[in-house]
Amino acid sequence: MPHISKKKVSFGTSQHLRKYLASHARATDIPLQYIDLKNFKERVALYDKKGKDTLWETCIYAPSDVEHIHNDLIHIYALLKVGGDVEVMKHLFIERIDNCLYGNTAPFRVRVVNKLNDNFDYFYVKNADASRIYGLELEHLLSPNRIHYLVSGNTLIEEHIAGIPGDDFVRNYFDKENFNPIRLSKEFVKFNERCLIILLGDMHSSNFVIQITPDFEETNYRIRSIDFDQQAYEGRKNIYLPQFYKQNKAYIELVQKHISLESIRQYQREERAVMVSRMRSSKKVIFDLLKAMSHDDIAPAENINNLKQELAAHYQSDRFLKARSMGDIVRCSLLHLLRTNKRS
Predict the structure, then answer these.
(1) DSSP code per residue over 265-299
(2) Domain containing 69: what range?
(3) 142 in the same domain as 178
(4) Does the reported pTM lie above 0.90?
(5) Between the N and C ends of the chain, which has fewer C-beta atoms within 10 Å?
(6) Considering 159, 190, 223, which residue would you say is the last residue of a domain?
(7) pLDDT tens for residues 40-87?
(8) Rounded distance between C-alpha atoms, residue 133 and residue 138, angstroms
């Protein structure tokens, strides 16, 4: 089973990455930065409906600061959701600002409420870690999922990805009457394949969510990552395969029980073919992203050297051995995908 022994180092946004973000409408100016939210007076533990500590704390700010902080956050939410049109945001207010005690980026989670119907949404304010930004962008370009985020200086603004946490899903949904184990197993196989190709690590059940879509006859599932901190950082191949995490044991057993080896290979081929199609439709953007990523220092040299050797052996391709950075390794992975799926 893969084991991540050390907390990942955070990497700032390089000149190459900032250029990419500006060129592809990801960079913006915002009225409030991550560091501004750290000026709280105190924090109070946040508990869920069952009285369990969530490991988030609600921040309390000085009365003189609250109005402008809330107004600035509404403005940022408008930038994230509707391109900055604050006119449609007049009925919204900030109910709560929470701070995470255990995340690598020590994020703030902002709860936005519609005062007309009490509906609510969240978004996150984080330190702009380059690894995470590359992960978000690769997910946006090469997965079935669209990702909305913005970067301003050293601040990263992220939308909330709704869904049922993978560990909660095992406890509360596996036994439900309308649960479809075959469709979820198929989705896990595809998710596993995608993570290896784009080198997204640490995908255990606490770091992804399950989205359920009722169909007219059956139920469909989508597995979505909610944590991109371990994008192309670790030096072992198995870190990038969700099938090797003990926290995912229930999902692995589901696949083993309901999906044959022949079907697994079929689903892997399907996912690779769809990814090739996405690559071809976004050639220029992916080229620009990989160019920035290849010049970026986002992992220790020992991790790069070990991973390229493991992947060279896995894919039986010496091209990986020429890689000098994690960005180069991701490029090799995607080029290998293209070469082996020429008919897709």
Answers:
(1) HHHHHHHHHHHHHHHHHTHHHHHHHHHHHHHS--S
(2) 15-159
(3) no
(4) yes
(5) N
(6) 159
(7) 999 999 998 888 888 899 999 999 999 999 999 999 999 999 887 878
(8) 9
